[in-house]
Specification:
This protein is 41% helix and 11% strand. The chain is α+β, with helices and mostly antiparallel strands. It starts with 6 loop residues before the first strand and ends in a 10-residue tail after the last helix.
Amino acid sequence: MIEFVGRILSVEPLIIEYPAGYKRELEKLAQKDSLTIKIAPPRKLRSTGERSQNHHLNGHIQQICVETGNDFAAVKAVVKQMAVSMGYPFRTFRGMVVPYSESEASVQECAILIEAVHMLAAELGINLKETEEI
């Protein structure tokens, strides 16, 4: 399977502009009798930087680390596992669930991570501070 961002140049016949690095793989796929093709607008990735979704998520993870004495990576892994049960996307490897990296997360998917970190804090009895409160 390959995935890329491109443009439809023509509908009749269907002509799609694609990044140059995909030519060899597309040539291989073109030899198949049929393919499954999914076309959708590019996903809007989560926001980054000051006051962003990414900052919100990682700030809360850090607060949980301080309160519990746990490692940042461990807390983030637990948050992601919780988020999977809430619809956060994942892959499988050797039968194990591997949640997407948040760098791949859309705005909606990052919102799931933020909801999961809020739930974890509530379960642990931790009152999270939002940006305006810090």
